[in-house]
Amino acid sequence: MSTAFSHRYWQERLHQCATRVALKSGLTVFLLLCLSQLAAAQGTFSPTGSMLFERTFFTLTRLADGRVLAAGANGAGNVGVNTAEVYNPTTGTWSFTGSMKIPRGFHTATLLKNGKVLVVGGSNYSPQLAYLSSAELYDPVTGTWSLTGSMSVPRQWHMAFPLKDGRVLVTGGYFLQRSSEIYDPQTGQWSPTGSMVNGRYLFDGVVLLDGRVLVAGGIFGSELAAEIYDPTTGQWSSTGPLNYPRGAYYSLTRLADGRVLLAGGANNGISQVYNQAEIFDPVAGVWTPTTFMPRARYGHSAVLLLDGTVLVTGGTAVGGANAFIFNPVSQTWTEVAGTFPSINLATRLLDGRVLVAGGTFNGFATAQAFLFTGGTGTVLPLLKLDVSAPLALAVVNGSYTPNPFTITATLTNTGAVTAQNVELSLSLPQGITLTEGSVTQVIADVPAGQQRQVVWSVQAAGQAQDVTLSYLVTAVLPNRTGKTVSGQITLPGGALTIGAITPKAGGDTGSVTVHVNGGGFLDGATVKLVRDGEFDILGNAVSVATDGFSAAARFDLTGKPRGLWSVVVTNPNGTAGMLTDAFTVEEGRAADVWVEVIGPSSVTMGSPSTFYIVYGNRGNVDAMGVPIVIGGVPTGAIWSLGFNITPPPTQQALQFLTPSQALQSLDLSDTPFHIETSGGTIAVPLEVPISAGNTGMLPITISSRISFALNVKAWPSLSDILCSDAVGCVNGIIEALTETLEAGFPVLGAIDCLKDFYCLSQQASFGNNLVRSLVWDAADLLLSCAGTLLPIEKARKAALLIASTLITCVKALLDVELPVTAIDPQAGGGG
What we know:
Helix content: 10-25%
Number of helices: 5
CATH topology of the largest domain: Neuraminidase
Strand content: 35-45%
CATH class of the largest domain: Mainly Beta
Largest sheet: 6 strands, antiparallel
Number of domains: 5
CATH architecture of the largest domain: 6 Propeller
């Protein structure tokens, strides 16, 4: 059995595309972006100097000066090897260096920021099998090894990852598969950190561009599981599962754009060998299958080349040893000719060539080494992205400072070629908005060795309590996926901000609902209009959104002085905000409500149909509402009603238009949000408030087991039926309701019933006492119609609702005191 677990860490650790985070005067994130067009994969293998010792299950580490260290091995009889040697790329030769203090194989080796190499764990069979917890350091300057602090537990088939702060994370392995610990080069000591969600050994992992650590697959019931370690919290969390199980000997390679390629591998026991490949998106946390390798293989090495392609070589392949190059843009594999050792290790040299060494050949350990040259295509521009912003804002007198503030992105080209058409975009969370310009900016070119900068001005909304928000900056070159990095800013609680109001004016002849956008609004806040030398106008019916970013209040502007007023919002805790001279009281114009029905004229069996009732108010005072009647929906239809009102009202503002208290005993369980008919037709009157200057939309979806013509009638508010006396009011209502029923209610006797009622209203003369008499006589007649001429239950309901509407209208317009117990829906009328 053989493995390639240790080489993965080395090659990923030494990528030129890497990130480091430093905190300076704000948050600064440095990102090396390898972005370019990819050329067709080409390349050849050629022999180079052989190692001085045959090695399997050893480590291969590129040193800071470009040389490569080979250390340890699993020798004959599983006896560990302590020898080490160094490869010189200039001469193509190997030379012995100092030997490790403890013989070992199956260990890991990590290049530290100080240039030394940390070797950890492994095993040795002398005189019996022993799993090792010891660690030692190699100094390339002196060529000597020294012991350092030991891990808390022995590990073999584990993984080691360098963190951005210089420490080293070691996790998993045989026997304690879940535990993790961290080595501090400053102290030479180990400390525990969070354990993995799933135990695993013989697995693989990579350091992501943002400094987190991804591991996936492995033995111990984790073949489909993947998880991520966050160094800032010291905790592991599960991420999206793999699409194909991976037990051991597969490879994970971080691509130039920050995604991760997983390829090949085998199951536990190597009874199955895989050619499947998939790519992990760290932003979405999802694995997506990509083109499979031409041949199944395990125990191989995978190295990112300078042009962004991936070289997969060595290992044991079905059909013979070979090598492939994967192009992540075209998602294609290209075979590279040659014969190579299996279970070898590989690392990329500073000049872009790849050193492949050791492993087994024809079943025996080998010292052979090869150099791969090629795959360099178009050389990548190397871009360093520096994103900076304040780490936190302060609250001064209830407001943030600084506010607005800036987020700055600086691109530095550290490569040898010009980067062209780099697109920088900013994604902001709720609570932070752009004050000017565009969130996306395109930089035409970034010449080698030069910088370009983009500055965004943003503004933070107030927060009720302390919150840390994340924003994202993405850099992209044409036809390539870019890299997204995040920054964070802390907004303390206790700030209140007002950004804008809608509408900005209202008439002095009625009430106007004003919607205030901003942040930090609390339940119980007051909203008022203020003006020097005038009494404040206090808003009523104040509502505050649950997220604290908006509030609404209704102001009675009747007879108020015209001109500019300031808007003031005050929280119960005393924090306040003002928008100076933001609202204008002007000459009043009556509510001007318009209604339009848009959508299909029929419903097809088995196919849901959606139509929209669109309405608005062109006036500068609020309208009472817009009554809407939907009729003609037959037995067996199921329909639902939603609403999308701009600005959105509270749910209580969208009300089912119910009858008066006298009719509450009637079964009106049907609601405007979901109704299934039990027979006949249905009528659903709605009343939706429309603020001055605003519009709304009511989407309605109907599904039916039969096809039918759809009849919808909507008309403006009852307040728009102008009448100087009750006769005009009644006539207007009758005309509107008659038109509605003719369009939507195929009910026998309905029209005759309404005609009789209409005639009665024409013959009446009106005084307050006669109004009372007329109303009850009319209600009695309608109830009689419902009981005799309208045998269908839904039509009976419609007649009762008409009676209720009449009562509501007359009472509202004439201010007539009407008894609420006058109508008994079971017995008929009375008065």
